[in-house]
Structures are given as structure tokens and as C-alpha cells.
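Researcher: Here's a chain I'd like modeled. Treat it as a single chain, no partners, no ligands.
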Amino acid sequence: FVPVTIVTAAFLVISLLELDELKEKTGRRVFYSIAIFACIGFVARLFGQYNLGFMISNLSSAAICIVYITYALRRFKILKSYMKTFLIGIIFFAIGVSIFVFKNLGLLPYNHFTNYSMITGSALEMVLLAVAVYQKVNELEILRKSEIRLKASLHREIEVAWDEHAKAKKKAEEFEFTAVMNNFNPHFAFNALGSISSCIANRDYVTAEKYLAEFAIVMRTMLINSEFSYTPLVREIKFLRSYLELEKLRLKSRLNYVIYIDPQIDQETTFVPTIILQPLLENAIKHGIFHRGEKGGTVTLEFRKVGGMLEIKVIDDGVGLNRSKEINKDRSSDHKSVAMDLITKRLIMDFGSDPYPIEIESTDDVGTTVTIRIPFPEAGDYDEYLDLMDFD
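Model: Modeled as a single isolated chain. C-alpha cells:
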């Protein structure tokens, strides 16, 4: 059984050590020839030719050991550590087998060492094989951890790239929003300055001075808001009150307004999106109250804390959306629709669509209510905008 053991071990070494030389034509022929002779010796012994079979088997075993040790040693330097360990174990096994074979051929004396040399070589081989397996497992574990670290690193880089892309996209959309909303400013400025000029023409200098101050607040706040996405509620209220005062100067008794702020709300630490509420108030006045003629109406602006949400309502008792569309059917209402679309898009971009952040309810000759619900800000949410408090 020694030749069978040697041949089996040889094929294992060829496979594990990737001995390309033995896959070449000449090397393969030599190796298989020796293996065939070993099998012939084994068969000869089965048919009673013990001496012949014994000699052929042992010589073939020794030859196989020499061949695959020679080929393996030629690759020793380029082998990985676990393969070197395994190869050393094979060498110990081959040496033990060779000593055992030479003892059987009478070339070495029969003693305790030579008699158990193959068993000793096999034991050493098994020990080193276990070490090689451990080294291989350790190598695979290192590779696995490296792969995990690489994947984690790539995942972080992808997240950073995605966040930067999302921020850039959001910034671009904010610029678009601001640019479109600023288109309303010239029309408003023209109307406001016209009303102030009328006061001056009528020598109502006190009123003119008052409304010039309001106009300065509105224009300055619009300029500041174009640079920021959020503003403290106290500043937004001041801005909206000035805007409504200017509109009241133009429409006189036809416009009244009410601003209600829930006592639970701290106006200095609560932040709201910029450039959103003024267009809603403008729509309420222009498309609701204005069409009521001399009767005029009232615009109500409410801020309430409802659960964990900040609820903002713009309410007018105007003619309603349908009546307004009928009245304006021959006029362009692109600004109104674009403004509402961009406001909705901005709110969804900042706060998501679940729940939907804006609702519009309108009844003919009763009025329109626009409701905005956004998460109530928590401490630290808008620290980057605290510098706005420095603008007086």
C-alpha cells in the first residue's frame, strides 16, 4: 500500500502547490510512468511475484518522492506561507517514506528508526498540515476583513458622494425657487412706491415716512432671505407685518389683516422657511380680497403648535379660487401657479411628502385657506441660521 499512498499524496501536492511543471508534457509523462510502474509492482505482488513486485513498488515509491520533492522545491520561494508549511510537511513524509523504502531494499539497516520512519514522517506531515490549514484560514479571515473594510469604505464614499449630490441638487432647486420668487419683487416695489408717492403728493409726510420705513424692512428682509433657507419666526412676522401694512396702504379700508401666534411657540427659537409665506399672502390679497371690490376683506395668518407639527394657515374671506379663475380667465396667471408649484416643491424637498405638507381649501364667495404643516423644530435643528438674529 505504500505506492498507493505515495501516488495519492503526489496528486494532492500537484493540486495544492499548483506545480505547473508537472502539467507540462514531459513532466507529466515522467510522473505518470513512475506511477504506472508502482501500480505494476502492486499488481505483481497480487499475483504472487512478491520479490519482483516488492522491488518495483519500492523503487517507484522512492522515484515518485524524489520527483515531486524536486519540482516542489523549485517553487518554494514563490509559494504562500501556508503552502510552504504544507510542502515542508510533504517533504518530511517523503523522507520518511524514502528511508522506509531503502530499509526494505536493504540499503539501510533495519532498526527502530528506519522501521517507523514512514509513520514518523506521516505524523509530522499531519501536524504541519494542520498548521498550514490554520495559516490558510487566518489568511482568508484577513482577506475577509479587508474586503469588509473596503466595502465599508466604498459605502461611505458613495454616501458622501450621494449627500454632496443631494445637497448640490437641493441648492440648485433653492436658487431656482429664489430666482422665480424674486420676480414678484419689482411689481410689489412699484405698487408700494406708488402708494408712498401718493402720500407725499398729498403732503401726508408722516404716513409717507412710516411706510418708507416699512418698505425698507420688506426690501432688506427679502435681500437677506434670498441668502438663507430658514429664518427665525420673530423676523418673519416683522417682515410679513410690514408687507401687509404696505398692502393696506395701497388698498386702504378694503384690506384688514390678523396675525395670531400660539403662545406655546417661542418666536426667537422657532424657524420657518423663507420666501414662502409672503407669496401666499400676496395670492390671498390679489386673487381673493381684491376681487371683492369696495367690500374688501380680511387676511388671517395663524401659527399654531399642533402635536409635534408647526401649523401655518393663510386664510382669506375672498371670492374663492374658482371665482378668481373666472375673473382672471383673460389674464395671465402663470405667476400664481408657478409660485404655488414651487412652494409645494420646496416644502416636499425640505420635509418630505408624508404627510403632504400643504393643503388648499376654497369655497366660492366664502374664501380660501392654505394650510402648511411642517415638523416643529427641535433644539439645534437650525443653529446654522442663528446669525440671522444679528440682523436688525
